[in-house]
Description:
This protein is of the alpha/beta class and 219 residues long. The protein has a single domain, classed as 3-Layer(aba) Sandwich (Rossmann fold). It has helices spanning 3-18, 25-42, 59-67, 80-88, 128-138, 156-168, 178-187; strands at 49-53, 72-77, 96-100, 113-119, 139-150, 191-204, 207-218. Helix 2 (25-42) packs across helix 3. The relative contact order is 0.15.
Amino acid sequence: MQESDTLKKNTQKHFDDWAGHYDDGRMSKWFRYFQSKIIDQVHPQPKQKILDVGCGTGWAVREIARQVPEAEAFGVDISDEMIRLAQQQSDGLDSAHFQQGDSEHISFPDEHFDAVICSSSFHHYPYPVASLSEIRRVLKSGSALFLFDRIRDKMPAVIIYDLVQKIYRDDHVRYYKSEELIHFITLAGFSEIHEVLRDQGFFRHSKLTTSEILLKAIK
């Protein structure tokens, strides 16, 4: 089995195991805090189709469906259990949809979405440019990707944490510098790449370290 296939299976198992308590505690609050900021940047409109890649239990998808019921919000995640819980929690939200999927193989037609969110999952992707190219494929021309993830920039604590993750977890790929993320996005064919948000520091948002960036890129 190729290393990338092993990583994906390990990632799927990790998130299947985590799914039952994914929405509990401070990590859930932290995810939702930043997802709210991402949704504000997406600014969903009626009749738009918006995709969340690596959606977890689907909070951002449900939030878009609640804010703009006339839009269609979709979530894809590699974990079957995450998707099961996302669907279970979305009863009554007709415009929230979920399916199990791989970031390198998204089961939607070309130029299908008006925006794509990828939030706090990019560091699990074994082939980042392949995933970004697939995201670009399903985006309409002129539409935006919103990529949010942890970065190593000027944060030795994140570099150390990255090394620890690689030693003790078999599903972790790596955290990148912001310039590396921009390079990947450029290689995938996007243009007009902008830094929308950067939040770095210690003891922020109930976490020891926060080092996050939100990038917006246009197809």
